[in-house]
Amino acid sequence: MPAALRFPAEWEPQSAVLVAWPHAGTDWAERLAGVEDTYIALVAAIARFEDVVICVADDDVETYAEMRLRSNRVDMQRVRFVTVPYDDTWLRDSGPITLRDGNAFRLLDFRFTGWGGKFEAGDDDRLVERLDAQSLFRDADRAPIDFALEGGAIDTDGAGTLLTTWQCLHERHPQASREELTEKLAGWLQQDRVLWLDHGYLEGDDTDAHVDTLARFAPGDAIVFQACDDESDSHHAEFKAMADEIAALRTQDGRPYRLFPLPWARPILDGGRRLAASYANFLIVNGAVLIPAYDDEADDAAAAVMANAFPDREIVQVPCRPLIWQNGSLHCITMQLPEGLM
């Protein structure tokens, strides 16, 4: 792989954000109306700043989605539909992980196994291949990689450092050592080093501790991470251990990271099941950061933390309570496409 290829940070310029519209053939069917409202709010928020590419299952889904978006006064000049089969809408994990070399791109097409075989994923595993076949991307070559890796499991600072969790990668590849996984990830993703977190999890999460629910890089050698200050909460000890791990991390030149702990939402239950509500599952777009809101008193405090971590960007809250019913949030249903790729 050419040495000039690099994995851009999410805060670098983007051409669009990729999403997939929920419909009755997805796992959202039982509560479709609520999740549609979230998607409308999300697309409206993204379209204020850049284009949105919406995957739709067929013409009927496209017609319906367009009607809902137009009726909510979304800027349709910034919306593009593409018809493609998909099992579900978690495009962070099935969409393309994009490297760039100037104005040329490489779409890393890792295996998507439904988070270790938990769910059917045949169409999702072919999503990148099918999008590429429709000439959606410009100056890009697709690189199939026979290795299970989800986009939500990794985060990069765009300067050669990758952040991930041991629990997830070990769950997907139990026979591989940390050294082996480090070498593979660094090679495929053009990273100088891989930082591993051994702690941190969310009840209700079925991704095996994706890092995008726990800790994320921010510009200027910063890390934004989910904290838990409620000593009575079952998460407290694990998140305290994760916070200590993050505090011990160092930049490539040996300095501590600037740290931005996020507040903790009160437990959200669904029929007695704890839902995975994390403010770390935010989405960066051109000029803004979109942050989940859960109808909780901590929502505004989380937005204030993000404003400090991203002082040059507008902070936009998106109602995400319907998403956590299916164990994910805002970042999980999106994939940014770097500037020039479209």
From TrEMBL:
- Listed Gene3D superfamilies: L-arginine/glycine Amidinotransferase, Chain A
Protein name, per record: Agmatine deiminase family protein
Q: Which SUPFAM superfamilies does the entry mention?
A: Pentein
GO molecular function per UniProt: agmatine deiminase activity; protein-arginine deiminase activity
UniProt keyword annotations, A-Z: Hydrolase
Organism of derivation: Pseudoluteimonas lycopersici
| PANTHER family, per database record | AGMATINE DEIMINASE-RELATED
What are the BP-aspect GO terms? putrescine biosynthetic process
* InterPro entries, per the entry: Peptidyl-Arg-deiminase_porph (IPR007466)
